[in-house]
Amino acid sequence: HDIRTIGELFRRGVLRAVQKPIYPSQAGALNKVSLYQGDITTLQTDAIVNAANPSLLGGGGVDGAIHAAAGSQLLAECWTLGGCKTGDAKITGGYDLPAKHVIHAVGPVYDACNTEMRAKQLRSCYTTSLGLAKENGCETVAFPSISTGIYGYPLRDATHIALNEVRQFVDSDVEDKIKRVVFVVFRDVDRSMYEELIPFYFPPV
Ligand code: ADP
């Protein structure tokens, strides 16, 4: 079956750690992120993040893929949650997924008239999801590129937000509870954008 553990992905050279800090005081933060191109539902992390909608009852894109792979028990648990506000996130089990948990984050639908509010909501998706992961003992977390599909968030801006929020979170995680964050890209354009911007937030030496 097409299940990928983090260790296997490293061995096969699919996941690449972004290595070596510029600032020694932040050494812990910089070797904690990876980029992976492929289907997030195959990853055996403690949690995968879903780009959900406010109903939490499934949808298209990565949401549809996650529900299809997790099975109907995921939908049953989601029914009990009473939806989720934009910018917020809720955690469930992973059911038939190789991941233990799904963190359902509701990204903003992009709106060029309210860019500051949309950015705040997207930032909140990352920080809230990482906070939930930490509270629930998840050491490895995989994120899709939230809001950049059907929700239309400009890819470059969304990628800056994702990288910046994760960088800040791992810097502040002094107890080292989050061991690895995997940025999962699906399309080649997303991969190129992350490859371009990762060095600014997680600079190699
Ligand atoms: P949103 O509604 O938040 O924009 P989408 O699911 O439409 O969410 O898109 C979010 C991102 O997830 C896009 O970059 C899309 O290409 C990507 N994506 C779609 N399916 C998968 C999958 N199975 N695994 C990982 N990423 C996926």
Automatic annotation (TrEMBL):
Residue span, Macro domain: 20-202
Protein name, as recorded: Macro domain-containing protein
Coiled coil ranges: none
Upper taxonomic lineage: Eukaryota, Fungi, Dikarya, Basidiomycota, Agaricomycotina
Domain of life: Eukaryota
Species this chain originates from: Pisolithus tinctorius Marx 270
